[in-house]
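Researcher: Batch entry, complex prediction.
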Amino acid sequence: MALFCLLPILLMAQERPHLFTGAEIIPIAGDPIPNGVLIVQNGVVVAVGAAGEVEIPANAIPFDMRGKVIMPGLVDTHSHIGEGDGGDRSATLHPDVRIMDTIDPRSSTFRKALSGGLTSVNIMPGSGHLMSGQTVYVKPRPANTIEEMLIVVDEQTGIYGGLKMANGTNPLRAAGSPGTRAKSAAMVRELFVQAQEYKAKLDEADGDPEKMPARNLQMEALVEVLEGKRIVHHHTHRHDDILTAIRLADEFGYRMVLQHVSEAWKVADEIAAAGYPASIITLDSPGGKLEAINLLNINGRELEESGALFAFHSDDPIVDSRFLLRSAVMAVKEGMSREMALKALTLNGAAMMDIAHRVGSLEPGKDADFIILSGDPFSIYTHVEQTWIEGEKVWDRDNPEDRIYATGGYEIFRSSAHHHHHD
Amino acid sequence: MRITAFNLMGRVARTAGMTLTLVIISLFLNAPVTTAQIAVKGEIIYTMDGDPIQNGVVLIRDGKIERVGSESRVRIPSGYTVHEAKVVTPGFIDGRSVVGLAGYYNQQHDQDQLDTSGPIQPELRALDAYNAREYLVAFLNSKGITTIHTGHGPGAVISGQTMLVKTAGSTVDEALLDSTTAIAITLGSGVRNNFSSPGTRSRLVAVLRQELIRAKDYAEKRAAGENQTRSLKMEVLADLMDGKISAMVTAHTASDIITALRIQREFGFRMLLDGAAEAYLVLDEIREAGVPVILHPPMIRPFGEAKNASYETAALLKEAGIPFTFQSGFEGYVPKSRVVRYEAAIAAANGLGMENALYAATLGAAQILGVENRIGSLERGKDADLVLFDGDPFEYLTLVNAVIVDGVVVYPGE
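Model: Structure tokens for the complex:
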């Protein structure tokens, strides 16, 4: 009921175009515009361009952004904010488990993400299973229900997330079996063979209720994967595990994003040749996790050189959401280009989640998700000042109630001792 | 097979990033020490002794700083190898680390920062477990950290001793600056994860006080020359009672910080407050106690006892006039060590400012750790520990051009 009452008000707030002038605009689609104009209305971008080249609507509400930098909201391709969970220890294959059923929309981690400039996030269950469950793509905006936060990839399928898979040491013995890497691959292949058979029955039935197989939530999710509607997000560290993930995806023809890909620098050309995108993380020092010991911050540079599509992720809490932008800058320090770093924080991640038609760049018709920075995105002294989602300002550093999520402070984040040794 | 070496070289050349860097670091750190005379020219030299010098020179001779001044005043004698950089600073000091006892593999065999056979073991010396050739030591050196206050970690009532070492040298003896700097005490709920008893925070304090009372008695008898059975445990605690070493007390919550100050008042030992995530709630009490703070890494994850950590705490400590420095702390997972320069940078950008952050991570740290006569600033007679940068040391994209420890270029730059 409350939502019903609010909707007309929200729409009214959006009716008049919002005009942002004076900032450097980094649209991602196209070169940076030193003195740019951004116009948004009804939740979408209406126009982006250089001052003097964009027609200004007479009734626009002006925002003076001189000295600021405006860019698309950041897309985090791998995060654990929202305090949700995934599969349990009863088994290692949970394609039917949905993290969306457990996320707390009121979690302070969402406001923390907004303070870091994140506007689209792939929230995943952990990596202690071969398949720990279905992921969810959300915008971390204030909401009472997770449904209000979903980014639906395709209205027809209604799909709003991927499927988390993992190989390497994390899934070993965590749920009893598998005990080896080879067994891991065999168990995954076995389940996909079943899913192929289930899909064949569905195809044969062709909608005839008499011939339809009994509903099976696990199989249904995997059929979505086999049909390319649901993307696999595959946690993997070591170079041989990366190649195994690729081998399995090739065998069953599913779409896959390689997640973490710690040793990407060893097999960057193979990743590019296979055509699977990679989602990477940077760390401040080597070591700490044996199979990721060779994770180097040169992954960005090596993947850029190889021509593979790649993006950055926080893996919050491994890297705090507030440092996602910093993560990409640390990769620039190791030799990748600034242009690609910004793209790998926005549009590339959106492409991996099938949402590039809506987010990731500032272009007419796309969602008005953007951030206002106090200056150069590559400087430590720069802060995110405002975060906007679909034309609404959802976080403002000038507001003390918002600001404290950027800095941290008393009783802001929940006390739960987060045990997250599986990424 | 001959191609093995060839392949390795090919891989190094191909990746040419950190792998190569670390190969070079290890080559340099194990190179014979030469006591060349060096002149470092900097567009800006942050000496920490007065205002920064524009277009300055630091002359280094026999491992010590010989002279510092502007280019117009300091003539570079012949025979000095000249290095140039945009920005020159003293070597960075990590206020609390476990690196060298804890290694980067994070496997049982390279994790010696905490022995869980007993909750009170002040007799454990840091130098007996320090691996000077640990990968992370060289890594930190390559980021401009030239001295670390390292040793036993948090997690026991008294986990052991800490020491000060340079991040160069291939044995602990070569690296050593101060063999026994502090004993590491932990208050709060973290201890119960490692020991069945003490199982509560108040039991922990009772156990600690009882031990300190014994130590006081031991110290008094020792001072009076009375015969008593020699106890390694009591000897070091008596040193604490006699003010020869400090107690580094880890406490994050405001309540545990206040308890730490209460114990300090009762026994009168020299104390360093470690962690202190909620220090901003009890600034007056900390200042009045005259206790310096070794602040948690600003990028510490906001969970558990550190859930209320703020990036602005350093700025608030500065404003309150409380001496403080930064630390890399202990990491049980990834990243296996934090880089104290990166941590100070976060504080610099959150109200503290560049020069205050630099001070805290150099001379401020040296003063808190009692070694300001040796390190922390660029002044005549001090150890020649310098870092050469191509810009602001806290900016993300600034590169290290060279790291000099005791007058030797131990790292040639990123």
